[in-house]
Design a protein that fits this description.
The protein is of the alpha+beta class. 58% of the residues lie in helices and 6% in strands. It has 13 helices and 5 strands. The longest helix has 27 residues, at 26-52. It is elongated and about 80 Å long. It comes from Chlamydomonas schloesseri.
């Protein structure tokens, strides 16, 4: 049965603390403490080395095997990298080491075979996304250029599915750094669409520490604000305020809201913000018409 780092540290405490009570005389206490500490240290070193030196091969159950001429690319990583990066995979490894549910543990996220086989079976993931994720997790320098518009959506999903804080922060950085490239005129299914990017932030990146919200949120608030002037504006100035704003963004926002993919792609919170903006615009229009009569 394997022993995780947390259990090992708890075991060290259990060995060291009683030593002070069993050997109250300072000369004996020091000798015994040294013996016990050395014994515990050897155990920690042995188990830690075993943990770190197990290489795990990622196996993708949803990817059909390629022909003999084109063997499927193998992704192999030190188990310690995944153990520290993902809280979800950490639980899978610990369950496997403890022998729960037999020698193989399966879950909605995947399963890990026994340490001898060291194969991690993943369901619903793409090898190309995990290849980028592993490079990001093992990088010692700046490799954020690996994140692109083509893979940021899938990387956000991996970060959320396996609870990987590092990957979540990297995706947030990418969206914030490229906020100037977000547009309402991109297809709704593209992460370069402002509504899509804001939805990624809501669905997958909400656990990032406060103060690190993506710029897409403020950009979206500005677009929604263009739907209608401030409710506090006097009636006679409302029409002038409308003319001073960008009508094209408001019309494009309403056009996107009528797309077939809107309900599936756009996160509920983003939809609620847009709906509130539309209702404010309707209220302003009614106020103008009422005042004109």
């Amino acid at each position: 049965m394997g022993v995780g780092p947390e259990e090992l540290l708890a075991g060290v405490d259990a060995i060291l603390v009683p030593s002070g009570y069993l050997w109250p005389r300072s000369d004996y206490w020091i000798d015994k403490l040294d013996e016990k500490a050395e014994e515990a240290g050897a155990l920690v070193t042995e188990e830690m080395i075993a943990l770190a030196n197990i290489l795990v091969t990622l196996q993708f159950s949803d990817v059909p095997p390629k022909g003999l001429q084109q063997p499927q690319k193998q992704l192999t990583v030190d188990r310690a990298v995944l153990w520290h990066a993902s809280r979800v995979l950490r639980n899978v490894f610990e369950d496997t080491a403890a022998g729960r549910d037999g020698s193989t543990v399966s879950s909605s996220h995947g399963g890990c075979s026994s340490p001898a086989a060291a194969v991690l079976r993943l369901s619903g993931d793409r090898p190309e996304d995990w290849e980028v994720a592993l490079r990001l997790l093992q990088a010692s320098g700046e490799v954020l250029s690996l994140i692109t518009w083509d893979n940021v959506t899938q990387l956000c999903r991996l970060a959320d599915k396996y609870d990987i804080p590092r990957l979540r922060s990297d995706c947030l950085w990418f969206l914030s750094a490229n906020a100037s490239k977000l547009s309402l005129h991109e297809p709704l299914t593209s992460p370069q669409n402002l509504l899509h990017a804001a939805s990624l932030a809501e669905r997958y990146l909400s656990q990032v520490s406060r103060g690190a919200e993506p710029i897409s949120n403020s950009r979206l608030d500005a677009v929604i604000g263009n739907l209608a002037p401030s409710g506090g504006a006097r009636i006679e100035y409302t029409h002038c305020l409308w003319n001073a704003q960008d009508p094209s963004s408001s019309l494009q926002l309403l056009k996107l809201a009528r797309c077939d993919q809107y309900a599936a792609v756009i996160a509920p919170g983003v939809q609620a913000r847009i709906q509130a903006g539309v209702l404010d615009a309707l209220a302003s229009a009614i106020r103008v018409c009422t005042a004109a009569n």
